[in-house]
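Figure 6 in text form: structure in, sequence out.
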């Protein structure tokens, strides 16, 4: 539900920071990069066994027509939660999905991301946001060697600042929303990056005061880039409709790697022209991303969009886009609300409003 989305999204970022701290410990004691690489890859071995332990999503199985597998997992969930499996409710859900899948125009996948003008704009905008976020995040992260500190200390401070940023985001995102913090992080990133100029030209060259302020600016940029990165990860999940969320997030992740590559090469090539040019470049693209992000709708306390039609009902600020002709039939999507209500019945810990249903009676879909 809406109250748990932030927690599930930010926990991933916490472990990202913890992983960097663990890497620091390994790197400090293992100075050979080959042995270090081999050592940290051993952590991935247990994940092989997750395939045999973790169950598949019953919602996904049902949406793909794998009803027997979905029913088996739902019965197991009901048993764990001491609930009675509702055969009638599941049969109704199954019949509804079979009807939906029989429609000739039932299409999902990458084309749905460009099904209308509004969906196209949101998709392309999110792709750009992810590119920018990875560009500035990895660009700043990989520049820790310029912090005028011991490289191990610099990396440790960077990881700690990143963790603080995630904690801060966790505290504010459910209070003031997604869009305002995201835009503010980007604008502040641009402003702080510009402060490089007066520090460089108005202060004593390589003086203690200048070096101190440069380290503070680098730490602040790391804080801001980490925060905006965490927010866009959650924000994108709440903007893509359920039927193409995996596809949309997959494309975002792919394009993000391009941003990371650009950030890496920027640190190398732009520094040759001027040592602070990469920072100014990151600030420039961040302000562009901030302006484009203003158009996104707010998703705080809003239900996840299930279809492209749900996305179009969101309010896009400062832009008027008329609906284009539908590429696909609007009424053939899986009734996600029915699935959610059914799973809430057999798994009460995910039910945000347990009083809504009489648990002694049959659930009505």
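Output sequence:
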């Amino acid at each position: 539900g809406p109250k748990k989305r932030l927690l599930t999204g930010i926990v991933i970022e916490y472990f990202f920071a913890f992983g960097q701290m663990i890497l620091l410990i390994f790197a400090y004691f293992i100075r050979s990069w080959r042995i270090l690489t081999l050592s940290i890859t051993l952590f991935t071995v247990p994940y092989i066994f997750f395939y045999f332990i973790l169950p598949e999503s019953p919602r996904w199985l049902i949406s793909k027509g794998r009803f027997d597998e979905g029913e088996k997992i739902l019965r197991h969930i009901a048993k764990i939660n001491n609930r009675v499996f509702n055969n009638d409710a599941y049969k109704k859900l199954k019949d509804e999905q079979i009807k939906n899948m029989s429609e000739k125009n039932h299409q999902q996948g990458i084309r749905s991301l460009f099904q209308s003008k509004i969906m196209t704009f949101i998709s392309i905008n999110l792709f750009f946001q992810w590119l920018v976020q990875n560009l500035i995040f990895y660009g700043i992260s990989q520049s820790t060697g310029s912090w005028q500190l011991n490289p191990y200390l610099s990396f440790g401070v960077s990881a700690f600042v990143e963790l603080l940023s995630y904690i801060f985001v966790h505290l504010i995102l459910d209070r003031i929303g997604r869009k305002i913090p995201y835009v503010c992080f980007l604008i502040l990133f641009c402003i702080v990056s510009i402060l490089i100029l007066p520090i460089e030209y108005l202060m004593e060259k390589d003086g203690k005061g200048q070096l101190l302020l440069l380290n503070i600016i680098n730490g602040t940029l790391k804080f801001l880039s980490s925060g905006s990165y965490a927010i866009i990860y959650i924000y994108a999940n709440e903007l893509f409709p359920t039927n193409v969320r995996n596809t949309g997030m997959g494309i975002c992740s792919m394009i993000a790697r391009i941003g990371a590559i650009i950030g890496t090469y920027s640190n190398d090539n732009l520094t040759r022209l001027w040592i602070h040019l990469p920072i100014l470049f990151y600030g420039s693209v961040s302000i562009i991303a901030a302006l484009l992000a203003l158009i996104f709708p707010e998703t705080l306390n809003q239900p996840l969009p299930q279809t492209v039609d749900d996305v179009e009902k969101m309010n896009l600020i400062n832009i008027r886009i008329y609906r284009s002709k539908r590429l696909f039939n609007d009424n053939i999507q899986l009734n996600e609300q029915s699935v959610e209500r059914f799973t809430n019945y057999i798994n009460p810990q995910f039910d945000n409003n347990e009083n809504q249903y009489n648990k002694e009676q049959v659930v009505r879909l």
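Caption detail: Residues 318-336, 348-365 have pLDDT under 50 and may be disordered.
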